[in-house]
Amino acid sequence: MRVVPRIRARWRARAAAATLPVLLLTAFAPAPAALHLPPSAPADSTTRQAALSPHVVVISIDGLRPDAIAKYRARTIQRLMREGSYSLQAKTILPSLTLPSHTSMLTGVEPAVHGIDWNTEQMERHGHVQVPTIFSVAQAAGLQTAAFFAKSKFHHLELPGSLDHAQYPAHRVEKTTSRETIRALEKYLQRERPNLLFVHIGEPDYAGHVFGWMSFAYGWAVETADEAVDEVLEEADRAFGEGNYTVILTADHGGHGRGHGSDDPRDVTIPWVSWGRGVEVGTVLPAGIRTMDTAATALWLLGLRLPEPHAGSPVIAAFAPEFSARGLELVRADHALPASH
Q1: Going by DSSP bridges, is the β-strand pair 56-61/196-201 parallel, antiparallel, or unpaired?
Q2: What does the alpha-carbon distance between residue 110 and residue 174 come to, in Å, rounded to a whole number?
Q3: Helices and strands, counts by H and E, the chain
Q4: CA-to-CA distance for 93 and 82, rounded, in angstroms?
Q5: CA pair distance 58, 248, nearest whole angstrom
Q6: Coil, strand, or helix at residue 294?
């Protein structure tokens, strides 16, 4: 049973005390200047097979370095790792910046394909991303989608008609706190049951830019993000039912000093954790997972696939044999793979 009373009580007890540090972080943080399969044959990506999970929740913790999970005792994330499958050696793209990285995470393609190499909101100049997102693919298949973004720059990813619900910072505010995000999520899930849900948590990135990655303040931010993850799971349990959804938890990039964006391993190495319905318990995943695989895995769980061209592949090794066998047959059909693959 998924109950963590001590963590939840600590979250609520320190909500008021946490207000000032969060305001400082958001006010002064500068705007940031496996098992893999070959790409599928061209096909209609909206053709839906039997879903392996009725609800998929993708959680992105902005700026979370994998080594911070143990160092700062991120208890909820550590529990998901114990009860699920994970890699602490997954890789993001270059440039390892928030908007380009999230675009690859949510489209399954490299920056050379999606074209977003800037890291601020530039809607008037560039408009929306020009390739399909996981939200637009799911919508085209008749599924319900929702996203909770902690930064205003994510407007670039909201293709018209792709999201049934999209939550952003208030007008003229660049960033919001996880507390605000969770409150909005709670209200939304009281009335809706999306098949695909994305939740973005920003505190580690905020703290990293102001105080430095792996600093005391960054550790506080990781703990805050971890508690937010626990709240997301609590709300998902209520909305979908325990054991009736699958979680993918990851990050867009890491960081070092007070920045990120380079090919430094501290910038490009990210965690990738799967947990919940169908996930193999206690599995350390093989090397080679990339951020584009998040998009491919989320859609694969929903019985969908990425449109061509794409770089992401479902991380089938994360799932229990009796569960993944069904999905592997779907992938083999798409890829025309021999049975021995």
Answers
A1: parallel
A2: 25
A3: 14, 8
A4: 27
A5: 5
A6: helix
Give helix 15-28 / helix 178-189 axis angle, nearest 10°. Answer: 110
pLDDT tens across the length of the chain (341 residues): 444 443 444 444 444 344 434 444 444 343 333 333 333 333 344 556 778 999 999 999 999 999 999 999 999 999 999 999 999 999 999 999 999 999 999 999 999 999 999 998 888 899 999 999 999 999 999 999 999 999 999 999 999 999 999 998 876 667 899 999 999 999 999 999 999 999 999 999 999 999 999 999 999 999 999 999 999 999 999 999 999 999 999 999 999 999 999 999 999 999 999 999 999 999 999 999 999 999 999 999 999 989 988 999 999 999 998 776 665 665 555 543 333 22
Q: What are phi and psi of 331, to 5 degrees?
A: -65, -40
**pTM (2 d.p.):** 0.85
Question: Rounded to whole angstroms, how far apart are CA atoms 176 and 267?
Answer: 23
Provide the CB-side half-sphere exposure for 83 (13 A, CA).
15
Tokens of 241: 């039912």
Residue 159 Rama label (left phi>0; alpha psi -120 to 50; beta): beta
Cα separation, 248 vs 77, whole angstroms: 11
Question: What are the residue ranges of helices labelled H in the chain?
Answer: 5-13, 15-28, 67-71, 75-83, 98-107, 111-114, 123-126, 134-140, 178-189, 203-211, 216-240, 265-268, 292-301, 321-335
The answer for 139, left when phi > 0, alpha when psi is -120 to 50, beta otherwise, is alpha
DSSP type of residue 306: P
Can the peptide bond before residue 309 be classed as cis, meaning omega within 30 degrees of 0? yes
Question: Which residues, 6 or more positions from 121, have their beta carbon under 8 angstroms from its beta carbon?
Answer: 152, 153, 155, 156, 174
